[in-house]
Design goal:
Elements lengths: L1 E5 L2 E3 L5 E8 L7 E7 L6 E6 L6 E3 L7 E6 L4 E6 L8 E8 L13 E2 L3 E5 L2
Length: 123
């Protein structure tokens, strides 16, 4: 099983980035997919989750209206479009897979994790 994130980098405040997470070794379309982030010295925090079919999503208040999650089950890939980025969005971003029909927000509900990709928002 692998989850591989990509698309991180350095961006100025107000800018945008699009993260991707490609899954392999499991039936991607059966899994809810979530994004989390971890800033230095802080716990890993939930950002957003999308249902296995892509029809529903749930966002943390901190990113609602700025970030958008989507998925392409034909490509085994989930995306995170991040707009209006702020300094406080700086973190390592992780995608994760959960074998459930619900929309979990807790880390312990997830079965597989990627290695993370760094996002730095700075002028």
């Amino acid at each position: 099983v692998q989850l591989v994130e990509s698309g991180g980098g350095l961006v100025q405040p107000g800018g945008s980035l699009r993260l991707s997470c490609a899954g392999s070794g499991f039936t991607f379309s059966n899994y809810a997919m979530g994004w989390f982030r971890q800033a230095p010295g802080k716990e890993r925090a939930f950002i957003v989750v999308i249902s296995w079919h892509g029809g529903t999503a749930y966002y943390a208040d901190s990113v609602r209206g700025r970030f958008t999650i989507s998925r392409d089950n034909a490509k085994n890939t989930v995306y995170l479009q991040m707009n209006s980025l702020k300094d406080g969005d700086t973190a390592v971003y992780y995608c994760a897979a959960s074998n459930t029909v619900s929309l979990p927000t807790k880390t312990e509900r997830y079965d597989y994790w990627g290695q993370g990709t760094q996002v730095t928002v700075s002028s």
